[in-house]
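Please predict the structure of the following assembly.
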Amino acid sequence: MSKKNLNIKIDELSSALGTFKGLEIQIGKLVDEEWEEPMGPTPFPSVGTLRDWDRKLLKRYKPYYMPICDLCCLCTFGKCDLTGDKKGACGLTQAAQQSRIVLISCCIGASTHCAHARHMLDHLLEEYGRDTELDVALNTNVEAPHIRLVCGYKPKTIGDLEEALDYVETQIVQLVATAHTGQEGDAIDFESKAFHAGMLDHVAMEVADISQISVLGMPKGSSEAGMTTMGFGSIDTSKAVVMCIGHNVLPSVDIIDYLMEHDLFEKVEIGGLCCTAHDNSRYNIRAKILGPISWQIRYVRSGIPDVIVIDEQCIRTDILDEAVKIGAPVIATSEKSMMGLPDRTHDDADEIVADLVSGRQKGVLIIEPRKVGEVVVKTVLAVSPKRTEYKNPSIESLMEGIDRCRGCSECVAACPNTLPIMEAVNAARKGDLSLFEGLQLLCVGCGRCESACPEDLPLLSYMYAASAESCKGECYNVRVGSGAITDVEIREVGKGIVFGEIPGVVALVGCANYPNGGSEVAVIAEEFLKRRFIVLATGCSAMDLATTLDEEGKNLYDRYPAVFDAGGLLNIGSCVSNAHITGATIKIANIFAKRPLRGNYEEIADYVYNRVGAVGISWGAMSQKASSIASGCWRLGIPVIVGPHGSKYRRNLLGAKDKEEDWVTIDARTGQDMYVGPVPEHLFYAAETVEEAIVLTAKLSMRPNDTTKGRAVKLSHYIDLHKKYYGGLPDDLDLFVRREADLPFTMKAELLEHLKAKGWVEDKIGMPDPTLLDRMVRRRE
Amino acid sequence: MSAKFKRGQTGMVGGPLQAKIFPNVGVAANLIKSAKRPLLIVGSEATEKKTNDGDIIDSAIRAMKNKKLTVVATGHLVGEFRKRGVEEANSMPLFVLGKYLSDSEWKGFDGEGQYDMAVFIGYPYYMEWLVESGLKNFTKLRTISLDRTYQPNAQWSLGWMPVPDWQESINTIISSLEEDA
């Protein structure tokens, strides 16, 4: 049912024209009468509709602000110094300014996914028609949990998705407006709006992914997701090589279609970086995943790509400069990232190819996806034979200029991870490249070291030179993105998750801004796979966890089953596939627990928060999109841990476990308040070390609804991991043990003694039918 | 105060209110000793950064002889103290600690009340930068950075110095605290 369309029902109307019975007038879209579920209280929520729910969460998880800038420079009153208790010229406090920036970040993130979805949807509508049916996942009725939950309607065709996207776009405009000077002034209201942006983001991501799954034939569940390969070694460099960078698969689809139609896969390799790579392989498994976003410069400087195609998001904005250095033309394909290139969309394909091959133009913009394939393939076939001088750069050429180093250490000061670049340069000058080879594993590929260097030394090239031979051999198996979790899978595991017998769902999400290299993602994943958590991954994290091999040369994708079940590891897909992770928690509430979904956000979020032990980890979180994805999790009550660099989002949402009054929940059976302990303890948390993140993940998987058996399983992991990484029992154990029966059997004696010393008493912590919503109380005592 | 001593991470410039650099290391030691309830906060790089005692953990253990000083390790670092037979070190996540240090009603690790000085050592640059920003903006707490690079959001910073000089400075400060035990 649309808010925007008019629907009037009149039982009986008498007028000068006569008497009409059962009159119904509809203007706009037809009312969805096939969905029997009654409309819930909050379809198409506006900016303030879910404010009360947000405030319940934010009362428990108060923002802890760490300004990364003490000033505000957003209007001409400024710069205003907001340090301490100072206020800006508009009256804004430091806390409100920080939350305002969080909101702006989430709006940018949500807008980016929404714009991606809009581009995707408009193209698919034009090419395939509005009535193309949604076909998202095998044996699945709940095809769009976010749209059903937030918008209150059930889309059947890709045309039906437009209404959700219209809504998201309208709401984002409202949110951005609140950040204008002289609008919102309260930090908590800014936070609530950031939650709203996050919720919208997940709707937008869902639109983008379910439309491309339905129309482009991407896998519809784990059983359809095969294995592909990733890394330098996955590319056959005897062929012409196309490198696609970004997140929007449409231009790549046309390239792949052209290769298929002209039987050219034997002559051309297509590989991708970042989420486009995931979606390319979901579209056609012959497309290769080159690697995460952090490998962008490294891969370009290897000289391997003959043509670089960029679509949108996370592209290096100096990609044209990099491409020119290796003689590779750039083809931009999105109005969002035109990079100053001439628009050749309406020109003859052969003319464009001629200009690129001759070098008359270093790059072009083609915004019609269906023209990209022909231009790219013809160009790459013509350019590749001419690029032999660039394809295998010598170590000497890559190490150019190193003797000019002044030893100023500006590179180290510029490095976000303070890597010992200076030491590596000094060693390399003596012929020892081993330090650079080691750095290559830790480098996030930002290139700030080069920018800072007064001699403009190509320090990232030195890293590549030191590791070129090993890089060329890199070839890892990666499971193709499986997309949505099917309804059948939800039915099979829902009980185990809700009662805590499956200890938790850990989602490894997002970017590659790691503090110590991507291998830490594999460390986290393996720790929880061994403990039979369900582990999901998307984006760069899904790639990075593939790069750690065991003694037999196998990675986690080789060793763990691709199932949504205990001990299973799934690559869900690209950034926009993150909607399926939160969507799975919504589906647990709906399919397993039969909670009504339609426009019923608060109740479903209340269910997820109190019952579903899901934890998101974005160990290398970098982007605004990562912040809005996280924000969508927060509103659903799903805690998110970020790595150290995630602290630069400038605020955490932290619970105070010692304040019992903060952890009082309503028992829906009786209406009575009940202390449930600090579960989950935090909603947004930047961890300092991977060990800390692992232990916290186990702790954050506890929920008030855990059965004794479930709590015992979760406690056993928390305790075991705490002993392993902290060297002893957790000092807050007494806050999580409700009854003696909660204690893991094998540790009972040891734990009881520990608890006794802490003054623990049984049943102080309640086991209610937990809810934060008074209206969910069934009977009052 | 030479500009070079303000060297930290290039992009992480401070705001209008920036840390003062100690004129000499003796001032740092005396300032810490002047606190009634100082808290030494040890970060995740403590095992990587070598001192005259071994590493920062070893130096912190020596500093713990000063009974006025409370030590807390963040991240998972308390395990390093325990491995070395020291059970008295406390443990708390960095930003959770920042939150508690902002709460005037917090009773501290010993139940005796809020601390009057926070001394940081052993951190990734930006994490210390951020937690000290929170404390600078939202508390009156005195903060000191003993790390080797300039930390603008502390009240006092050792400033940038070469490794040997920093090691000597830390040794001087710890020895001074030890003498005061």
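Chain A has a mean pLDDT of 95. The longest strand of chain A covers residues 6-15.
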